[in-house]
Amino acid sequence: MRRSDVIVVGAGPTGLFLAGELALQGVRVLVLERLPEPDPTIKAGSINVASAEILDRRGLLPAAEDVQRRLLASVGAFAGHGRKNALVNQLDRGVRGTRRFPVAGHFAGMLFRDELVDQGDPVLAAHTAASGGVLVPQYDLELLLGEHCARLGVEVRRGVEVRGVRGVGVRGVGGTRPADADLSDDADVVVETSAGELTAGWVVAADGGRSAIRRQLGIGFTGTDPQLVGYQAVADFDDPGELSRGWTWTPRGIYAYGPIPGRVLVARFGPRPQDRDAPVTLDELQAVIRDVSGVDVTLKGLRGRATRWSDNARQAQSYRRGRVLLAGDAAHVHAPFSGQGLNLGLGDAANLGWKLAATVRGRAPAGLLDTYESERHPIAAWVLDWTRAQVALMRGDEHTARLREVVGGELFAAPGVMNRVVALTSGITQRYDVADVVGVAGVAGVADRAAGPVGSIAGDVALSSGDRLADHAHDGRFVLVDRSPDGRFAGAGRPRGHRIAYVADPASAASPPSLLVRPDGVIVWAAAHDTAAHDTAASDTATPVTATSDDGVLKELDAAIQRWVDSR
Questions:
Q1: Residues 109, 247 contacting (CB under 8 angstroms)
Q2: Alpha carbons 496 and 280: distance in angstroms, whole number
Q3: CB 438 within 8 A of CB 556
């Protein structure tokens, strides 16, 4: 059987997007999935802005916008008789061409309030292009990414259960040597499955929070125990009666009804079921809804399968063991509030994909793959704390209720606070520490005039031609936007055309700086063109830019390219 460069275990959003990233770079990738078909079970109901921008950079935003349009029609109908709620109105404006930052979501059930958000905030204003593609449920996202992978020629084998991994030459499951004994950096990995053994140069476990691979390798999964048990389903009610639409706190927990017709989420503080793996029955779900809401509702049936979950918050101590890596829920789990798990997994895939591809293709700078864990581990740790804080504010006792009044009624209404909370939830404030490698060239404050400071997500970068930076990132290359009046950075970008998309965008003195942006949308170099005017122009040759003591801008660009693109 043909050896794969990479085997991805798990065909959820994380695994599928990662597979697509690898295929874009010419890597032979195979995806293995236990389920025979995509799971229609109700899960995350949307993605955040950072995730929508990930799709935008791969040309998938139009498909996401189509999903949002269909969903908005359904939500509008649920609002009743042509009336639309505030969320529908503001997202609908985005679909019809008025780009605004989407104020959608909640913190501990306290809905974000559009009227408290300053749309003129430059942090938010730099991330509006993808606002029409955030209302994308997980099932629709999986279908979208599955089609993306099919176009790229990725093979997805469904109905295949992965039982373990081992290094070449190590006995299989039940052998006498540790399973990870020979999972070294220079040996292939054998994947033991229900369909036989498969071999790959690398394996990425994106097989969920109960990852069999993570457990087998003995990678620590530390964190905090659950305080609540939650359920989510789309159900047919005999009569929803007095169920409140939106989020409602009660002494027993919290529940949310809508905005999709029949969708209900309910979380109850207290002990977990004895058999947490047992399917959720109609009677169990009905009993929990009645207990938490205090409303004597009757359920007639379920549309699809109901899910049971908890606020168990844990993170893998390491994201890598030799040639096996963890991504998505296999690396971190937490309460699903605000859909942070889906977004966190997509961010993992976007960060890891191009780095692993460069490693497989033998063109990765030294230490590049190590930055996957060093960059993504702190982001996940922050998200776990963000969800823990929400669970603390959801309790039904009087003290917590008064605290919610202070947070939601007073603090969130203070100038700038809602903007900050919305930005944090949207994922656009994520920043990696790349400053130790290369700084920002030019006068002080140049980073503030960029689309985002070095180390942050580029966001909306408009070009004088009328298109955007994201339009040049569809094939997964780095993007070098050269805004110098004489194209002085062409010598750094054009010779590496297979790795860097060079975009000449000469601009006026008041325009944003030139940028080098990684495939995952992170800015790793920026230079104000007016401050670089005195530097020696780069020649348009295959020789990497070599800086002198007088051309610091080119020196920093060359350092960034050597650090992130290649060292040759």
A1: yes
A2: 54
A3: yes
Read off the pLDDT of residues 406-465 as tens digits, 9 standing for 90 and up: 999 999 999 999 999 999 999 999 999 986 544 434 333 333 333 458 999 999 999 999
CB 293 within 8 A of CB 243: yes
pLDDT of 139: 93
CA distance 61 to 70: 14
Best CA proximity match to 78, nearest among 243, 268, 281, 315: 243
Q: What is the DSSP code string of 335-396? A: --GGGHHHHHHHHHHHHHHHHHHHHHTT-PPTTTTHHHHHHHHHHHHHHHHHHHHHHHHT--
Selection from 114, 154, 111 nearest residue 7 by Cα? 154
Under 8 Å between Cβ of 457 and 503: no
Question: CA 551, CA 480: separation in Å to the nearest integer?
Answer: 18
Buried b (16+ CB within 10 A) or exposed e, 98-113: ebbbbbbbbbbbbbbe
DSSP assignment letter at 3: P
Q: Please, are residues 489 and 536 in contact by the beta-carbon 8 Å criterion?
A: no
| Calpha distance 83→85 (Å, rounded) | 7
In angstroms, the CA 254 to CA 244 distance is 11
CB distance 552 to 535 below 8 Å = yes
Angle, alpha carbons 246-248-252 (nearest 5°): 145
Q: Which two tokens stand for residue 72?
A: 């908005």
Grade residue 186 by pLDDT with cuts at 50, 70 and 90.
confident
Amino acid at 337: F
79 Cβ contact partners less than 8 Å away, ≥ 6 residues apart:
85, 88, 259
Kindly report the number of other CB atoms within 10 A of residue 164's CB atom: 18
Sheet with 332-333: strands ordered across? 221-224, 313-316, 332-333
Indicate the SS3 state at residue 254.
strand
Both tokens assigned to 430? 């994520």
Asked if residue 492 has pLDDT above 70, the reply is yes
Q: What phi-psi label fits residue 37: left (phi over 0), alpha (psi between -120 and 50 degrees) or beta? A: beta
Among 35, 277, 40, 39, smallest CA distance to 161 is for 35
